[in-house]
Design a protein that fits this description.
2 copies of one chain form a homodimer. With about 240 residues, chain A is mainly α. Chain A is built from 10 helices and 3 strands; from the N terminus they run αβααββααααααα. The structure holds a DNA duplex (30 and 30 nucleotides).
Chain lengths: ~240, ~240
Amino acid sequence: MSERGPDPATAGYAGQRPRSRRPLHESAADRLRDMIVEGELAPGERIREQALCDRLGVSRTPLREAMKVLAAEGLVTLQPNRGAMVSDPSPADIADTFKVIGALEALAGELACERVDENDVAEIRVLHYQMALHQTRGELREYFRLNQRIHERLVELSGNRVLIEAHRQLGGRIRRQRFVANRSGARWEQAMREHEQMLDALASRDGRRLADILRLHLDNKLTAAERFDRETEKPLALLAD
Amino acid sequence: MSERGPDPATAGYAGQRPRSRRPLHESAADRLRDMIVEGELAPGERIREQALCDRLGVSRTPLREAMKVLAAEGLVTLQPNRGAMVSDPSPADIADTFKVIGALEALAGELACERVDENDVAEIRVLHYQMALHQTRGELREYFRLNQRIHERLVELSGNRVLIEAHRQLGGRIRRQRFVANRSGARWEQAMREHEQMLDALASRDGRRLADILRLHLDNKLTAAERFDRETEKPLALLAD
DNA sequence: TTCATAATTTTTGCATACAATTTTAGGGAG
DNA sequence: CTCCCTAAAATTGTATGCAAAAATTATGAA
């Protein structure tokens, strides 16, 4: 589920022997990210090192190193001498995260408009219409997947590596919320309209407009999520569009 | 010297004494941040664990944990089985970082305008005129210190904790560059004019204008830094204003 | 019972030992 | 002299043991 880096231990073709095996603390971090996103480790849940070690089949040293990384990413919260827990962001934290992601994507949109060539636009267009197809067919899961790809790809097209990394990291923090909310189809039509505007703005290289649309898009996403939350009376679960 | 994150042992309610002593890996991380900012560890320099352990007086376990944190912050770069090195961001990386910081501060400006009361504005005003005084006196160091405080405080006034943390982290990555460049007084006048505009916009709660000024301010900062770099023929050293 | 307190167990923090990998040094062969 | 191969040294990755701290249970008095 998590986007792993290429695994040097297994990625080799025949003859291209990996120079070394992937460190356990990296694999452990990946596994932990997955477990958190998929809810195998619930938000707020206390994490006991030895228990996790048994489950992952590693010793405490690499696990603890992985935990430090996850903490820096905001996925777990460390309490000195009192162990760690899966981060349980408040609705306010999640709203804050959306605001920041919105600002990052807005910047990405502006930068992308200055760099994209016709190929890039065409690629986004393909993704967009694939997503539209899934939407009309009501294929929720595929729709969300494409949606996320589009946003990610747009950020990549900014060519700003710092931006890409910051966006990826913040997105990871609320991935679980999106994962959980994959069942709600609310706001599809509006979201699709906004995505069409995004595509238009990108195609015409109108960076300022694209930035505005992205900010608005993220704001609306948050609003919809908050309404969804109020209606379902469950912890803030967010839409992924 | 380093802006430490909130200490989990002391953060929380006022008067809540630390229940235990600060973990070694946290202290080590703080020390390492300082050493990197001050150039005691040079960019690109290979980091040997045992040597650092001897210097810091800790064993490898907490040091390695600290290194994982620093890597997540972007201050060091890890190469599996091949050790770590102090990150040596390219001019492009630094430019990218400035762009993202600009977007974050722009968002902070907008949010701050919706929240600040007269006290907050007055506080910024005081910092501003203190900075102006240091500028006319040519007190470079104090000028930079106040300058940084103003930007940090503005971001804090956004009330968005995710934003504050992201800004703090990205600022940390280029702190060494600013530290090195503390000798250049270029662009003071222009920077001061921009800061006056910032104060105006904040006082009149004009979020959109403040955001634009901040973006421009950061862009100009980068441009000046790049020119400074070309002129001195040294690795990109950045102004701190 | 209920609260406080002391003993016990569990869990975390750190150092160290060992294994795996990479880097370096040393010899030839061409 | 350079290149390549091999062995030694150095360095990183992982497991484990022990000490310190926290959580839990047990104990006793009001």
